[in-house]
Amino acid sequence: MTGGKASTGSPYAPHTAEETAAMLDAVGVESVEDLFDIPEPVRFDGEFGIEKRTEQATRRELQRTLGENRTLTEFLGRGHYSHYVPSLVDHLADRSEFLTSYTQYQPEVTQGFLQALFEYQSMLVELTGLEIANASMYDHATALAESALLAARVRQTSGNRVLVPDSILPERRSVLENYTDGPGLVVDEYATDDANADIDSLAETIDEETVLVYAENPTTRGTIEENLAEIGDLAHDNDALFCLGTDPVALALLQEPAAVGADIVVGDAAALGLPTSYGMGLGLFATREEFVRQVPGRLVGVSEDGDGNRAFTLTLQTREQHIRRERATSNICTNQAWVALRTAIHIAYLGASGLVELAEKCVTMADDLAQRLDDISGVQAPVNDRHHFREFVAHTDQPAPPIVADLEERGFAVHEVGEHEVQVCVTDVNEHAVDEFVTLFAEVAI
Amino acid sequence: MNYTQAKWEHDEDDLYEPLLSEKDGAEVEIEAALPDELTRDSLDLPELSEPELARHYTRLSQMNYGIDSGPYPLGSCTMKYNPKFTEDVAALPGASVHPDRSEGSVQGTLELLYGLQDYLARIGGMDAVSLQPPAGAAGEFTGILVAKAFHEANGEGDQRTEIIVPDSAHGTNPASAALGGYDVVELPSADDGRVDIEALEAAVGDSTALFMLTNPNTLGLFERDIERIAEIVHEAGGLLYYDGANLNALLGRARPGDMGFDIMHYNVHKTFATPHGGGGPGAGPIGVREKLAEFLPAPRVKKMNGTYERFDPERTIGKVHGFTGNWLVLIKTYAYIARLGDEGLSDASAKAVLNANYLASQIEYDVPFSPFHHEFVASAGDQDAADVAKRMLDYGVHPPTTKWPEIVSEALMTEPTEIENRETLDELADAFNAVIAEDDETLEAAPQKTTAKRIDQASAARNLRLSWHSLDD
C-alpha cells in the first residue's frame, strides 16, 4: 500500500515506512520522537480521545448533524442577507489555485488573485464614490470598529466620542465597544425618529469631542435613511468623520455615499457572494484618499514588472502589523480575501444593469409584501412611514412571540423585534414563497 | 520540477486584463420606485457574459500559485494540503442557515459548534473554548480582552498596563496588544534563540497583564524552560498567552494547557488544513483555563438534557464579531479533525517535524539555531534573502518566508509541513542549493519564468493606483 492511502497516521502525509526510515537516517536519528525537544514534565501521551474516521464516515456524520437543522424558508435579514449566488461563483472561486493560495507576498506568482482583489477594490470604489477600498475586513461590525479607530487617528488633537443611532444592532455595538475600549473612545447614541435619524437629537448630542458619526442606509428596520446629507453636514461642522454602514446591493441604487459627505463606508459585502452562512461575512471598508496611510488591512496597487508590463502587488505594507508591529494601523492579518473574490465574481456576473435590477427588486418586493401583510386583519405594515429596502417591520395586534413560533411550525422564519412587532425580509431567494407566506401569516396573526 | 505559471498576453503592454478594459460603456442610468433624491444617478460596472467571466477568472486562477500547484514552504504560515471533501461538507444543505434562527431549528449547527469546542479544548489542554474570533489576530485580541476583564475583576485593571512579547513574536502580537490599550514591552531573545529567563524576570512585575509566547517559537525552537516561564509570569500576577501559529509542531506531544498557558488561540487554517483562500478567511478560536471561562465572548454553546443551547458566559466581554465568526471555516475544521483523529493528528505533527529536519539536512545554507521542530530558519549569508526567494520562483517552487525573524540575518524561514514526500523535499533542496551557487546578477534579474518579471513594489507605493479609476492616465 502506498503512503497516501495508508490506513494509519495522517491520510495527507505521504511517507512510506521505507521513506521515513531513509529520512531519519539522513537526519541522523533513530526515531521521529528523537526530533522532539520537549522536556518530560510537559510531554503529552497523544490521547485526545478523538476517534479517527474515514472520509466517507466523516461526510456521513456531518450530513447527519447538519440534517438536524430544520428546513425553513427564511424571511430573515437584519444585517445578514441572502441573494441567489450563481453557480459560476462557486465553481470559479473553488478553483484550487485561488482557494489554496496564501497572502500575495510573492506577487510574481500571484497575479491572478491580486488582479481579482484589485477589481474588487475598484467595484467598491465605483459603488461608494470614495477613492479607495481595502481588500477586505472580517465583517460589518469589525469594519465599523476599524472606522472609529481610523477617525480617532486622523483626529489626534482631541475627542473621544463615537455617535451611533439608538437602533444599531446590539452585537454590532458590542464589537465597536470592544475595539474602541483600548484606545479610550466612548460610544454614545443619538435618537431615531420613525426609524430614521432624528437630526435634532444628533445636533444636540454631537460636540467637538466627537470623532465619528455613524449612520446606516438601509437602517436596522429596513428603512431608507433620508437625512444622510444633514448627518454628513453636522459631522463635518463638528470636525468629525461621517461613516455610513451599507452593502453593495443597496449601494447600486441608493444615494452615493460620497455625494452625501460620507468619509468612510463600511458594511457587509457578503450580501453578494455568500449565503447567510450563520453570520460569516465580508467587511467592506472604503474611504477617502487622504486617509490612505491610516487605512486598516491590505491594499492592492498597480506597478510594473521588469519588462515594463503592468502588474499588481500588495502596497503600503509599512502600515501593517508585520512591519510596524504595535504602531500598525490595525492588527488584521488574515482577512476575508476569498470571500472578496466571491463577491467580485458575483458583482461581475450581475454587471451594472443586473445589480441595479436586483436593488430595485429589493424596494418593490418589500413594498409589495408589506402591502399584502397590511391587508391582513390585525396586521399593520410597514410600521414605519418610510421607503424600505429588502425588509420592514409589521405590527401585529396579537403578541408577536406566538406568531413567530406558529410561523416556524409551518416552515417559515421571521424576526421578533417587539412585543407586537415582527420584521420580515424579502429578496430574490424567498420571493417564490411569498404567496404561501402571506396565506400562513393571515392564519397565525388572528 | 518544471512548473511554470500560465500567462496570457492580452496586448503589448499588459499581461491580462479583459475585465478592466471592458468596463467602459456599461453605465446604467438609475430609475427606481423612489424619489430621485434618495437614489444615485448612475452606475458604471463591467457587463460581460457568463462565458467571458468563466474564462476571465479561470485565466486569473492559472496565474496564481496555490498549495495544489506545488510546494509552498512558507514559514509560520503552515501551508498544508486542504482535503477536498471538507469543501463539500461545508456546502451541504443545512450548513448555511441565518444566524438569527431559533435554537430549536438549528440543533445541527449548534451540535457541530459544541463538538468543535470540545475537540479544540482537548487538543489544547484547555477548559473552555470560544469559536467566535474570525482570524488568529482576532483571537489574540479576544484573548487580550479576556485577560483585561480578568484583571479588572480582580481589581487590578488599572495597575496591569503592560503586555510582554519576545522580539521574535509575530507582528500581530504587539499590534493586538496595542489595540487592547496596552503598553508593549519587547523582550530580547537569549543567544540560543529562546526566551532570556533573566530578562523575563526583570521585565515582569505588578504592571504585567500578559506574556504572549509562541512555542515552538518562530525559529522552530521549543521553549524548554516553559514551566519556569509560566512560574515567573504567574508569580508576578500576570497571565500566559499561547500564540497557536506553531501548534502543528506539537499535536499529540504537548498541550499549551499542560505547559501552564492560561489563554491560547488556534489558527485553524494553519493547524487543521482549512484553505487560506488567498489571505483568508481563517478562524481563530480561543481556549482558556477555567478561571477565565466566564469572560469569553457570547454566545457559546452548551448541551442541556440532550438539547444544544446558546448561552452568554456570566461576565462575558461581549462580542468580537457580528455573530459566530467564520462558520464555514469551522465546519471544515471539525471535518479535518474528525478525519485524522488522535492517530492522524499526532502523525501529522511527527511528519511535519521529520520533513523540516530532513529538508534542513539537505540544504547548503547555514541553519544557525537547532534543534528545531516543524520549521527552521536558514541564513542566506551574503546573498539577499528577497533575491533568493525571487530566484527560487524560477525553479518552480514557492520560496520560504524571507527576512524574518530578524534574529537571523537574511532569514529564509522554511516550513515544508507533513504533506511533502521525500522526492519533493529533494527537489526543494535542489532549488535552494542551485540558488546558493548563483551570482548576485542572476539573483537580481530573477524571476524570469513567472507570469510577471520582478515587480517594482516601491513604485506601487510612490504612485498609488488602487482602483481601475486610476488607470486611465
From TrEMBL, chain A:
Q: Which UniProt keywords apply?
A: Oxidoreductase
Q: What is its EC number?
A: 1.4.4.2
> Domain of life here?
Archaea
Q: Which residues form the Glycine cleavage system P-protein N-terminal domain?
A: 12-434
A Gene Ontology biological process in which this protein takes part is: nucleoside metabolic process
**Annotated InterPro entries:** GcvPA, GDC-P_N, PyrdxlP-dep_Trfase, PyrdxlP-dep_Trfase_major, PyrdxlP-dep_Trfase_small
Pfam families according to UniProt: GDC-P
Q: Which enzyme class?
A: oxidoreductase
Mention one GO molecular function. Answer: glycine dehydrogenase (decarboxylating) activity
> What is the official name of this protein in its record?
Glycine dehydrogenase (Decarboxylating) alpha subunit
Please tell me the species this chain comes from: Haladaptatus paucihalophilus DX253
From TrEMBL, chain B:
Top-level EC class: oxidoreductase
Instruction: List, for all copies, the residue spans of the domain called Aminotransferase class V.
Output: 157-277
Is Isomerase tagged as a keyword? no
Q: What is its EC number?
A: 1.4.4.2
Does this UniProt record's set of keywords contain tRNA processing? no
Q: Name one GO biological process term.
A: glycine decarboxylation via glycine cleavage system
Pfam families in alphabetical order: Aminotran_5 (PF00266), GcvP2_C (PF21478)
Please give the catalytic activity noted in the UniProt record: N(6)-[(R)-lipoyl]-L-lysyl-[glycine-cleavage complex H protein] + glycine + H(+) = N(6)-[(R)-S(8)-aminomethyldihydrolipoyl]-L-lysyl-[glycine-cleavage complex H protein] + CO2
Query: What GO terms fall under cellular component here?
Result: cytosol; glycine cleavage complex
What PANTHER family is this protein classified in?
GLYCINE DEHYDROGENASE (DECARBOXYLATING), MITOCHONDRIAL, GLYCINE DEHYDROGENASE, DECARBOXYLATING
Q: What protein name is recorded for this chain?
A: glycine dehydrogenase (aminomethyl-transferring)
Give the source species.
Haladaptatus paucihalophilus DX253
